[in-house]
Write a structure and sequence with these properties.
Structural class: alpha/beta
CATH topology of the largest domain: Rossmann fold
Shape: globular
Helix content: 25-40%
Strand content: 15-25%
Distance between the termini: 54 Å
Number of helices: 10
Number of domains: 2
Number of strands: 13
Length: 344
Amino acid sequence: MNWLVNAWYQPDRHLYWLAPLRLLYQQVVKHKRQRFLCGTVAVWQPPVPIIVVGNITVGGTGKTPLVVAIVEQLKEWGYTPGIISRGYGGKVDHYPLFVNSDSNPMLAGDEPVMLAQLTEVPVMVAPQRVEAAKGLLTQFPETDIIVADDGLQHYSLGRDIELVVIDGDRGLGNGYCLPQGPLRESPKRLETVDFVVVNGSKPLLSVPLAQQSMTLLPEYLVQLQNGKKYPLAEVNMSDFKLVHGVAGIGNPARFFTTCESLGMRVIPHSKADHAPLAAKDIHFDDDLPVIMTTKDAVKCRPFVSANHWSLMVTAKLPDTFWQQLKVKVEQVRSKKVNHKEYVG
């Protein structure tokens, strides 16, 4: 399937032979959304504000670091946030499943465990986002705002604020919906969300809408054997001139490029997004440092050694974005509080 993904992100590759399937897919997606918008299918509205951070493209865009940044900002504003997620890659007999920093990523999914470790807030997973949200509010009634990691297309879950993250390097690819292109929904969907966040320094010309620029800044190297974080400013980068890079994310090339921007020469080891990792995947026949993503690191704790590291990145956005988000959150919160008082 790698050849197809590569073709999607080449603007001149139209893959016309997949057009009939694309048209069918678009009709199904449009019909599904219309059923919720028209009230044909019930939408559950949570009693607290909910922010959905998602994407309209297949593959990694950088939404999970944005979820972390939003949760941290909400805590600074005095909120008590919780996170919900599908828990992709995990599998248990019952849902919803509460995830903490010590949860098994093979059961809970790698991203939820990573989110629990980075944010230290409750994380609840379930394939059905409504089930995850209800479970979160039941087990943690002090939660006064929910952040959904992905779930933009799960319309049975009511939402108050929608953010779409787009990879600035790959953009919207060839502009077609699945399977002819990488889009889950038409680009027109971007006109209905509250924020379009572009992961990269340059705005996308293919998206003629107001865009917020996000950059993922590498800040720490974490030695996985002991969990100690080292600010990059204090790291002797001459020890990392040549490294093995391991990345099981939607866009491994972005991670390798980030490592190279720090002066590393990377021997790349790309894995499928959410791929399970075993000792053989991160141990090599030399003593070179092994650098991996934070998401991959949560799956490797049982078999790391002193030369295994993860690179932590932080999402940075302009102050204007945070100001606008705060205003929207406060408006939603006020509306929901007033509604509860009225109903009560």
